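ERR on first pass: missing label on line 2. Operator R.T. fixed the label and resubmitted. Corrected input:
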Amino acid sequence: MSKSNGALDARLEDAARAGWLYYVAQNTQDEIAKKMGLSRQSAQRLVSLAMTAGLVKIRLDHPVARCMTLAMDVKQKYGLDSCEVTLTDPSSNDPALGIAQVAAAEMERYFLRKEPTIMALGTGREIRTAVDELPSLDCSQHRIVSVVGSLAPDGSANDNDPLNHIGDVTHAPRHPLSVPVIASSADERRVICAQKPIRRNFDLAQKADVAFVGIGELNDSPPLLTDGFITWEELKSIQSSGGVGEIVGWSFDAQGQLIDSDINERVSSVSLETLASIRTIGVARGQDKLPAIRGALAGKWLSDLITDEATAEQLLK
Amino acid sequence: MSKSNGALDARLEDAARAGWLYYVAQNTQDEIAKKMGLSRQSAQRLVSLAMTAGLVKIRLDHPVARCMTLAMDVKQKYGLDSCEVTLTDPSSNDPALGIAQVAAAEMERYFLRKEPTIMALGTGREIRTAVDELPSLDCSQHRIVSVVGSLAPDGSANDNDPLNHIGDVTHAPRHPLSVPVIASSADERRVICAQKPIRRNFDLAQKADVAFVGIGELNDSPPLLTDGFITWEELKSIQSSGGVGEIVGWSFDAQGQLIDSDINERVSSVSLETLASIRTIGVARGQDKLPAIRGALAGKWLSDLITDEATAEQLLK
DNA sequence: TTGCATAATGGGCAAATGCTCGTTAATATG
DNA sequence: CATATTAACGAGCATTTGCCCATTATGCAA
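pass 2 clean. output:
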């Protein structure tokens, strides 16, 4: 054993003593200094060293601690601005369970702001459930804009549009996008989107402070299909082009690239590029949505993610 | 699940979040407050709760951490004023290894005092080694008094008397007890102890600020026998009376009670009652001494103990 | 030995923390 | 429904902590 090693050992031993006195015996650094015959500063250095040298291990025995660690790792891995991970209830298949409450809390934080805020809303069970979780708030200073059409293929209004629900409880001015989610043709879409009120909505979305969006899976029974926005043939076409998920109607592949397909020419939602330029919070969980979430993250369409423990684990593999 | 439990759970969950942010993510309480939408005080309460509720587990990965925990437990269990535990070197049988250095450090602390101090010294390998470890110190303001005789049965001075060694390095005035450790009879002991200079030494010991004593085992080759202070027959007699250990010549049983024996009538050391009335630091370690240490602690003859890891573990069983 | 380089030390200060106390909100009770 | 009881809250303050910087030890080569 070399002399320098010996000296390091001695210092580490002192650090361990100081660390023990500080963390286990709850002494103040002054008390440690007195007991070890040091100045307060030296004691502080030893305590600090005990931590730096990794002698001190802190563990948090609570399920949410794991969630927070997962959140940090997901945030890190995908370069997100933030990530929230909730507990998973294995006995439930509800795609919105847990994450909707978190999304609602985040929405509420925006609504409680004094400054006028523009909030953009996408589609999905998660978003709608989140909106339902909101308490009654009077915040007429804010505005809510939809980034996705609210009309079904037959031209009827979509009862599920979260914009209606959110207006009921917040009394904030609403800006619905009264267009079909998917136009019947690329030409129709161009005409629709050229309309002035629609363009105003798009401009408003561009200036939104935050957008909340669900992430749709593109397996054999995706929301887009069950809600009648696309046909079985169209779905198959998207799938064969590599589509794994969609956000507000825009289908993308595993790398997050928009699918080069007829459908994407007909989507009349706010563009993903627009969403990517503002704070866009994705709200999604579940095995089914995993490829979709991965694609959305790969394409950098989201700045923030709200998901659950099981999904976060998968995302880290 | 009752409502109150639910509320407690929610609070604990918040506590876990706050604790995670504080201990794992190294946030300040202000940052936690901002992130969780609370006041700084509430965040502080949650962090504190996380600790109180036992969610936060702090572990120190270093051998000395274990020693310090053992020391705390021994101190607690035996009602000591303090306890120090050193690392055990399993490859050595030296009865003084490690503990002598600690005892020396403690002695040094007394010698470095400004105020005049009286230090009492007992016998034993541990004490002598400790004294040898002392650096050269000039501290003539202090006094050192022996609590045990320094004469062998043949009347010769004991070279091992730590008093001689300690005087060489400290230049503090020495007060040796120039009497036989064990007088040849109870009557002789009475005569000896009645002498004025001897009585003065006893009085000085009574006023000592601290005493350092070894703890002698009473197996079949104890120091008392090998140094020729008692005969084999006397040892056997003590053993048959239940003697398990001795301090400065006084033999006691497993409960710490002084042995009712001829030998204890002839011991001319300072009484254990006197030692018990001042700060008396026992210095001992090793499997052999375990019953002796247990007895000494049971009899409350010591206020402080310096031992090693392995011995401390045994003491806690 | 001298001079230089590096590390350790303690003073001092701003930030962070723990705690008490009066007030307010929530809940139970009559 | 009014009132009592309790828990939570935040303001304010004293203590504790982290860290910069000037100064002092320590080592080391010339």
